[in-house]
Amino acid sequence: MMQRIAALLFTAVCCLPSAVLSQDTSVTRGVRIGLTYAPGTRPGVLITPVGGPNADSVRVMLARDLDFGDRITVIQSDGGEPPTGTLNYPVYASLGAAAVVQASVTPAGSLHVVVHDVGGARVMDVADYPLPAPALGAEWRLAVHRGSDGVERVVTGAKGIAATRAVFEHEGMLWIVDSDGSQAHAVSGTEGGLSPAWHPSGRYIAYDELANTGHQTIVVRDFTGGPSRRFATRHTLNMSPAFSPDGNTLAFASGDDGTDIFTVAPFGSSSTTRLTAGPGATSNASPSFNPDGRQMAFTSSRLGHAEVYIMDADGTNQDLLTTTSFGDQLYRSDPDWSPDGRRVAFQSQISGVFQIMAINLRDRSVQAFTSEGRNTEPSWAPDSRHLLFSSTRSGTSQLWVLDTESGRTRQLTRAGKARLGAWSPRLDTGR
Predict the structure, then answer these.
(1) Residue 134: cis peptide before it, omega within 30 degrees of 0
(2) In the chain, is it the N or the C terminus that has fewer CB atoms within a 10 Å radius of its CB?
(3) What element of type H or E holds 400?
(4) Per residue in 394-426, pLDDT tens?
(5) What is the DSSP letter of 50?
(6) What DSSP string runs through 373-411?
């Protein structure tokens, strides 16, 4: 099959009408995006051989990113030389391609990407993505991921999530990994870090820092080199931070025997506002804002066991979200509100083992996503389709990614143990 595709690709770029000398790839941005294809199917996309330095790495990354997005079928082909001249669209159509991607690394150091609509026999989009030095470094790779997301937007109308990262706890400190599982590295100075959360700009993370004394402090870390800020109350425990969608409010849990939810301005006054008032050892924790910042979900043990509640962002109108009508044990916790506002993911005990579920806010229906191993700490991707979570299905706790539409899972981390993962916003401008 590979030999046939290679032969057809040779035909596609070499057997051209003599009157056709070149392809116009200077179309203006802003043309109609999205191909026409049958609902429920994934359009086939073929990536031609890439030109320029590090071409093989670019092509592998583009193909992997589009595959991991779960909206596109990547059509594999053998290598060869980058195509020149006008593409023979009927040949690509015979391979099942709805779109063709031509990419090259320019002498100026940019990733040049041209997307072709095979059925319409036209160029759909042309874009350039500057590639920061050094080549193959973290920011260089992030720029290629942005190119993948651009292709997915043009082909499907939905922007991809390749240009994102996950932060997680590993070996007593925080680590960061790219969305494809590469470039895993420790974040210096985060020893004792737990429960990280991203600022919507991608510039900061908040986390709780566990000191040797057992006291926990909320830390806001600036990735651009600015000073970190620390927030604490008079209580011993300060944990599970979450930023509001506008980034101007930081919610966290604080207490001693029990905890309540407080808010603070992460870049302003250190004065806190208390939102809940649980008696005694009641635990109110794990806040998660809805997309407009007017509500939040949180975990509370006020019924004698953990359930997920919602409330207004000022602490009013507190209401039970999860009920006793599903599952066999009364324990639901660690909610994460999807960026589209439609669902809240959480962990629930089933037969004594935690599994990942989500509740639809429109009709309160519940969907279970996992059943293999212990699965905890869900975190939505920016597309509200993919979930990051910790799982023991491989034998040790690692981060996994779930496509909630198809059920497909993939392992994101592999070394040691990884947990408490948080998915970043789209990192469109770098940092």
Answers:
(1) yes
(2) N
(3) strand 398-403
(4) 999 999 999 999 999 999 999 899 999 999 999
(5) P
(6) S-EEEEEE-TTSSEEEEEE-TTSS-EEEEEETTT--EEE
103 residue type, one letter? A
Q: Predicted confidence band at 5 (pLDDT cuts at 50, 70, 90)?
A: very low
Q: What is the pLDDT of residue 113?
A: 98
Residues 6+ apart with CB under 8 A from 49: 55, 59, 79, 80, 81, 82, 83
**Residue 64 pLDDT > 50:** yes
**Structure tokens given for 114:** 């041209």
Q: Is 156 helix (H, G, I), strand (E, B) or coil?
A: helix
* Residue 351 Cα to chain centre, angstroms: 30
Count of helix runs (H) and strand runs (E) in the chain: 4, 29
Residue 37 binned pLDDT confidence (cut-offs 50, 70, 90):
low
Instruction: Identify the structural domains of the chain with CATH numbers, from first to last.
Output: 2-30+41-156 (3.40.50.10070), 165-423 (2.120.10.30)
Task: Give phi and psi for 221, each to the nearest 5.
Answer: -105, 130
Distance CA 372, CA 354 (A): 10
The set of residues, in sequence order, having a beta carbon less than 8 Å from that of 81 and lying 6+ positions away, is 49
Nearest to 36 by CA among 91, 98, 88, 89: 98
Predicted pLDDT at 326? 55
Report the chain's mean pLDDT, rounded to a whole number: 90
